[in-house]
Write a structure and sequence with these properties.
Elements (H helix, E strand, L loop, with lengths): L4 E7 L2 E7 L8 H16 L5 E6 L4 E3 L4 H6 L3 H20 L4 E5 L2 E3 L1 H8 L2 E5 L4 E2 L2 H4 L7 H8 L1 H9 L7 H6 L5 E3 L2 H16 L3 H11 L6 H15 L3 H8 L3
Parallel strand pairs: 2-3, 3-5, 4-6, 5-7, 6-8, 7-9
Antiparallel strand pairs: 1-2
Helix pairs in contact: 1-3, 3-4, 3-11, 4-6, 6-7
Length: 250
C-alpha cells in the first residue's frame, strides 16, 4: 500500500501541490499540516507564479477527515486541534497571494468540498460528485461552511448539509459555482489545468495579487470564525451519537 504524501513540484512557473492518502485521500492531521506548509512554501518561492492543488489516485479527490483519527479523539482540546487543521489550511489558502487552481479528478466529501471551495478557480471531471456527510455522522460542516457558502451560496450549502447522505453531481457543482468547468476525462482536465495555469503564470504577478485580494475581501474575520467553528466540531465529535456512528466504520 502506498504511503501518504504531500509534494510540491515546479513546472513552467506553476507549483503543483499534490496530496495522497491510501484511504480515499482522507485527511489525517499530519497530511493537513504538510499541505498547509506546502502552500506556505509555494507562497514564498519566487519561482512559482501560480499554484495548482491536486490529489493522487483516480476517482476520489478527497474523502475529508480521517475517520480513524476522529474515532481516537477523546477530549475537546484534541478535537478542536484536529478541526483546526482544516481551519488553518483554508485560511492559508485564502491568504496566499498567489492564485490557487483546484484540480478535482474525483469525488469530494466533507472537508474535500471545503478544499475545492477554498481554491480561487476549480476544474473537475464528470466523476467529481460532492457530498457533505457531516450531519449524518453527528457533527456538521462547520469549519468549511464559510468557504462553501462563499462559493456556492448559503441556500445550496443548506441543501447539501441537510441531504447529508446524497452525492450531488459534478454538473450540479458546476451550475452552483463550485467548478468553473467539468471534463469527460482526467486527461482533458489535466490539459485544461496546465494551459490555464501556465497562461496565468505569464500575467503580471502584481495584478494577480491585487485581484486575489479583491476576490477574498471581507473575509479577515475568518481567522477567528474558523477557530470558533473548529471548537464546535471538536466538542460534537465527543458526543455518544458521533462515537457510535463513527465506530460503525471501524
Amino acid at each position: 500500500m502506498m504511503q501518504p504524501y504531500v509534494t510540491l513540484n515546479i513546472e513552467n512557473q506553476v507549483g503543483y501541490i499534490e496530496f495522497f492518502h491510501p484511504e480515499h485521500n482522507a485527511m489525517p492531521s499530519d497530511n493537513l499540516k504538510k499541505l498547509e506548509q506546502a502552500i506556505v512554501e509555494a507562497e514564498k518561492n519566487d519561482a512559482i507564479k501560480i499554484v495548482v492543488l491536486k490529489s493522487g489516485g483516480d476517482r476520489t479527490f478527497c474523502a475529508g477527515a480521517s475517520f480513524k483519527e476522529l474515532i481516537a479523539i477523546d477530549d475537546a482540546k484534541t478535537g478542536k486541534q484536529f478541526f483546526l487543521g482544516f481551519a488553518n489550511l483554508i485560511n492559508v489558502m485564502r491568504k496566499c497571494s498567489k492564485l490557487i487552481i483546484g484540480r478535482v479528478q474525483g469525488k469530494a466529501v466533507g472537508g474535500g468540498v471545503g478544499l475545492a471551495a477554498a481554491t480561487d478557480y476549480c476544474l473537475a471531471t464528470k466523476y467529481a460528485a460532492i457530498k457533505l456527510s457531516e450531519l449524518s455522522l453527528g457533527i456538521g460542516p462547520f469549519v468549511i461552511e464559510p468557504a462553501v457558502s462563499r462559493k456556492m451560496g448559503q441556500t445550496v450549502m443548506s441543501q447539501m448539509t441537510i441531504n447529508a447522505e446524497q452525492f450531488f453531481t459534478a454538473k450540479f457543482a458546476k451550475e452552483k459555482g463550485l467548478y468553473a468547468d467539468v471534463f469527460d476525462t482526467v486527461e482533458a482536465l489535466d490539459e485544461a489545468v496546465k494551459i490555464l495555469a501556465e497562461k496565468l503564470a505569464s500575467y503580471n504577478p502584481e495584478a494577480l495579487k491585487e485581484m486575489k485580494d479583491v476576490f477574498w475581501k471581507d473575509t479577515a474575520y475568518w481567522d477567528e470564525l474558523l477557530i470558533e467553528r473548529a471548537e464546535i466540531s471538536g466538542n460534537l465529535v465527543l458526543s455518544t451519537f458521533t462515537k457510535e456512528t463513527l465506530n460503525r466504520f471501524k
